[in-house]
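Tokens in:
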């Protein structure tokens, strides 16, 4: 069996790995690359496999960096089943239609601009129609059920505790020379989080494909962040301000609703102060996602189930209002009665949140509370880093509101969480580390090796042959990847040309040096000097060529 790492190899997005036996090709995830122009360009490249040859896709969860290229895969010829949990199947229509809509809008916008410059029209990465065709392939399966997806491969989904429907996948691959067990972690969640069950600890595997997002960081305690959230709401309301919470529509928003439900239900003293304070969820996508949460209560954790048994839905309370229309959304900023507004997008890059920021950032009475990761370069990141003013809709807005960053609400296990999960394995497996920045992967690798584990850090798109009963060595590095293409967005042909040039030059240098004259200090003939000179010229022009390609990017 072969395993090919095709995404989330140099960073945390674009999750995509291919398992290949003599008979079958199974894809694990098909995520979108995210994070600026260079990452976005990777989405348009060819897949390092033929989409029509993939027999099926096994999806870990509904985040776009894990599922966002499925419609593209379908557009390029894939037509097999897409396996996922039932809750993921319910979230995918929201995620993929929204993503397709954004791609269509972006292309439309680029074409309007390009037309004026006389440029050729660009195609969206995929359309809403492509997304619909992908959605038709979804094949939901239950957690904890062993399912034969063909005559060689059996899978089982276990709770990952990361977002609703998220799964850790166990795969048993039976080939003529024996059986191999692979565990794909997907994204691993945090213990004791609201609503979701804890991530599953698994004891046996031969190989583990493991995420390492926070391989070098620890999170503050979640309980501390909840207390801070309560404090910040009270002090904002007392001074007559509004609390604005940018939150991801799927996951974090529901977690916020859960915490506010608790605050309103279980704290009668505070409630006296808050009984006229309404909590608005102002994001159509978040409203739809909340409905999906309610329909999937069977996968909630025990504590949340207890709420339901008592007849108190944890995602409903008297002061909670979901706004739908644009008019309703605009009306929120017409009166200045204190309130809580939860809106998307979580990093303030798009969506209704930008309007709320425009209305509240200048107001020293109001507070902006961040409850999720803010990527470099985003408006959210600028705000938590203390920007004095920001540009919104072409207008300079002073930042006078209180800015609070609560870090305890992560959906990803931190360094200790990852180590605990990895240490549960009792079978001395080999770890392939993916889905992390370089430092994070290296740190986790070191910690695991210190504990005696065999670890391979995946640093570029690469491939490994796995043989039952044979172990890969820990020091083995990745081979034959396209890291240049990934770092610089070179096309396959450009990369191929560059490689050929470099190997030509290398062999010439080898010829010259292996004649040993240089090493022995003998006089170099005129003929050889000319050859060396030519090699240097070649090298120089190759570098220039490479530069010009990079400048075009
Ligand atoms: Zn995720």
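Residues out:
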């Amino acid at each position: 069996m072969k395993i090919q790492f095709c995404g989330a190899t140099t960073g945390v997005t674009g999750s995509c790995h291919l398992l290949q036996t003599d008979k079958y090709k199974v894809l694990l995830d098909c995520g979108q690359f995210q994070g600026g122009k260079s990452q976005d360009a990777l989405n348009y490249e060819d897949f390092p496999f033929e989409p029509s040859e993939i027999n099926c896709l096994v999806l870990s969860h509904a985040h776009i960096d894990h599922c966002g290229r499925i419609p593209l895969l379908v557009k390029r010829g894939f037509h097999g089943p897409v396996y996922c949990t039932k809750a993921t199947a319910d979230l995918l229509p929201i995620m993929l239609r929204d993503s397709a809509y954004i791609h269509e809008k972006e292309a439309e916008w680029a074409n309007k601009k390009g037309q004026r410059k006389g440029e050729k029209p660009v195609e969206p990465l995929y359309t809403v129609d492509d997304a619909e065709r992908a959605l038709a392939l979804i094949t939901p399966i239950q957690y904890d059920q062993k399912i034969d997806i063909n005559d060689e491969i059996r899978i089982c989904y276990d709770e990952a505790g990361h977002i609703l429907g998220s799964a850790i996948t166990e795969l048993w691959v039976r080939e003529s020379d024996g059986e191999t067990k692979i565990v794909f972690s997907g994204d691993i969640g945090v213990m004791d989080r609201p609503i979701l069950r804890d991530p599953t600890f698994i004891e046996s595997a031969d190989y583990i494909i493991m995420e390492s997002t926070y391989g070098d960081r620890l999170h503050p305690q979640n309980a501390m962040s909840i207390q801070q959230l309560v404090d910040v709401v009270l002090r904002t309301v007392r001074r007559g301000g509004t609390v604005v919470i940018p939150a991801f529509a799927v996951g974090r928003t529901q977690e916020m609703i859960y915490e506010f439900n608790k605050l309103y239900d279980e704290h009668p003293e505070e409630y006296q102060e808050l009984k006229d304070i309404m909590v608005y969820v102002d994001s159509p996508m978040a409203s739809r996602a909340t409905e999906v949460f309610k329909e999937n209560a069977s996968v909630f954790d025990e504590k949340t189930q207890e709420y339901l048994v008592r007849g108190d839905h944890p995602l409903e309370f008297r002061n909670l209002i979901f706004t739908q229309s644009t008019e309703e959304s605009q009306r929120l900023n017409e009166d200045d009665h204190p309130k809580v507004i939860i809106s998307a997008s979580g990093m303030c890059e798009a969506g209704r949140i930008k309007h709320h920021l425009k209305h509240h950032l200048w107001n020293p009475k109001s507070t902006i509370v961040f409850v999720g990761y803010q990527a470099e370069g985003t408006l959210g990141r600028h705000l938590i880093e203390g920007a004095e003013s920001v540009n919104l809709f072409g207008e300079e807005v002073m930042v006078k509101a209180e800015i609070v960053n609560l870090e305890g609400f992560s959906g990803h296990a931190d360094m200790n969480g990852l180590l605990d999960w990895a240490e549960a394995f009792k079978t001395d497996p080999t770890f392939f580390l993916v889905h992390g920045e370089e430092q994070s992967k290296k740190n986790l690798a070191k910690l695991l090796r210190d504990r005696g584990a065999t670890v391979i850090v995946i640093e570029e798109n690469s491939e490994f042959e796995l043989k039952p009963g044979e172990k890969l060595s820990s020091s083995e590095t990745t081979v034959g990847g396209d890291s240049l293409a990934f770092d610089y967005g070179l096309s396959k042909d450009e990369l191929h040309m560059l490689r050929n040039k470099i190997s030509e030059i290398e062999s010439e240098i080898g010829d010259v040096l292996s004649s040993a004259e240089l090493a022995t200090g003998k006089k170099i003939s005129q003929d050889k000097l000319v050859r060396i000179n030519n090699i240097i010229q070649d090298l120089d022009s190759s570098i220039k060529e490479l530069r010009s390609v990079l400048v075009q990017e």
